Amino acid sequence: MAKVYLGLGSNIDSQYHLRLGIRELQFHFGDLELSKIYRNAALGFTGADFLNMVVGLETDDSPEQIQGEIAAIHQRIGRRPVTAKYSSRPLDIDLLLYEDRIYDEPGLQLPRRDVLEYSFVLRPLAELAPSLVHPVTGKSIASQWAEYDKDSHPLTPVDVIL
Fold this sequence. Notes:
single chain, alpha+beta, Alpha-Beta Plaits, 6-stranded antiparallel beta sheet, 5 helices, 8 strands, globular
């Protein structure tokens, strides 16, 4: 079984869509580890705040199969294909890490750059897997979070019952 981490985010009816995304992931993958949920301002465009979190899971699915399931979940919840990188969305699920695999092909990059670039990915990941070693940097996720400029994109923990 591979240990996998996914990022989830929403800024359209966020609580509803995060709950729906969690249910869909549980249906396909079973037990999930859930981080806290964080509110943060939209990046790269003017829009409603996002709610973001990270989930951990174990699976025998390949990265490509996981990507396929993510696409199917997006389709089932009615998400339309997004052409703009920065835009509002009901639910965005991203494959962040798949074991210590390093992969860089069109449509699939592991580990995803978002892990080190965005506080709303790195902080919840550090909660779930502080001792996990980033396969590119060789540093633990906890140390990556300790070094991160937390003022660059502030987060606020929120209480949401999933």
